Amino acid sequence: MKALGGLLRKEVYHILRDRRTLVVIIAMPVLQVVIFGYAIRTDVDRVRLAIVDPTPDPVTLAIRSRFDAAGVFRTVAVLPRPESLDSLFERGDAQGAVAFDPAFAEKLGRGLPVRILIIGDATEPNTGGIVQAYAAAVVQAYANELGTHTAGIRIVPTIRTRFNPTRESSNLFVPGLMAFVLTIISSLMTAISLTREKETGTMEALLASPLRPWQIIVGKVTPYLVVGFASVVGVIVEARLVFHVPLRGSVTLLLFEGLLFILVSLSLGILISARTSSQRVAMMGALIGTLLPTMLLSGFIFPLESMPVVLRAISYIVPARWFVLVARGVMLKGIGLAYLWSATLILLAMASALLVASTKSFHERLET
Amino acid sequence: MTATNAIVARDLTRTFGRFTAVDHITFEIAAGEVFGFLGANGAGKTTAIRMLTGLLAPTSGQASVAGHDVYREAERIKRDIGYMSQRFSLYEDLTVVENIRLYGGIYDLTDRDIAERTALMLERLGLGHAADQFVRAIPLGWRQKLAFSVALLHEPKVVFLDEPTSGVDPITRRQFWELIYEAAARGTTVLVTTHYLDEAEYCDRISIMVDGRIAAIGTPAELKHTFGAASIDDVFVRLARAHPPEGKSEARP
What is the ipTM of this complex? Predict the structure, then answer.
């Protein structure tokens, strides 16, 4: 056990003294969350809204105050006639507009149909669409409150979103991001640190010593398990504090699944490095073998449902796919093992298979 | 296999696919002997050493190291040997003392033993001032000597040195050989590979490998006498010509 303690201490020195690695390990999760949280987010915020209200009355004022209260919109102009809208859109001063019919409350009172025209600037189609949907939702909410006796306000789109009613993209990216960060730290770092030992020749010294293969593997895996676990906690805390991502299910379950996923990735890293001899090859192997599938085939960014059958079939063997499924379930839906047992079992099976395979590949003596 | 022999090999063979790296080599090395393993690059020296240290399973043949069979008692062998690989085996981002402590722990030495031997080693090497320096910061020659001393830390019966002196200056090589003699004087058997042929003269006995076989074995004086050569260099060139290596790089002087 003393030998193992020495190995662990050595690995901690490696991690702490390799500044670049340390920066990557600490800064990457934090940076990724910020990048995905702010830069790549698909939410719209502070949308510049113009209002066309020819005859302000209690109803239009009430709807207008809803737009201000929604937090998404910022009213930049209130116009009496729709004609002036064009120049506002052309200058980019307005990204969206809401135009009321004249004599809105009066018509409504008499049971006549009233119209609210919602206009979105679709130069950026995504933003335009989202602005329209948001605006429609605001009006819809008001119409619902008025109740059935004023069926006069007819809004065509019926919008109903569950689990992510505000459509916060951060809610979706955080579980995927956890998978991504864990994959990098776990598989890439172990693969690199193991092949570095092969390159420098220290691995031979370890193998020629009385150390058992499992001790060498435990010595390698444990420090990165701790580091990976710390970044899971870091990402969750950051997601809670900065982006207010919900955590509806059990924290313990989430952390356990995180640990399981780290173990899968670590074993994958060891397997990759056992089969390669140079850091460069190991890095490429880890990149192609883990990072790309994690990015593309886990459902993290691109929905799996819309993929061709072949890619969907491949996604079944991507560990991140199962972890993203579990993490989203626990965080956003608040479901427990009753629903997630199969994904958990798959991760468990992957971890054990990979660990056995990597220990075996160490038993096979170096043949270079 | 007699108890006085530290290493015994009988028809030891290793093939990689169709390529035979080590071809039925047979030799004995007595306890306390300094034995030189000579040969061109690719002649099979490293493969032979890796089989004897338990890093590589032999394809066929028998061998024992420190009285333990390489097939059945590989783990026992590992406790009784020291190994310094071609690429040098210390961690560059650990300090001198941390490296010593790491290997001391790996070989199950007590803390007191480690502390005592560390002090002794640093004094012997004159490295006391560099105890807390990173290994990457100390000159190559010192690193080689340190790596050798670390390989001897657990007082192994047999120590394997795979081209320990490649890339170091002649003075450091000389000092390195003094360390080898000191170890041999304390009863450690030393098996050293080299392609510096002048170093062959420092060995008690040498073997010259050509294409995976042992082409000649004996004391340096015997070999020179047998081949009627003035130096080991001449012996080597003669053997290499007799068995022209196919497309392999020649030995460096």
Answer: 0.85
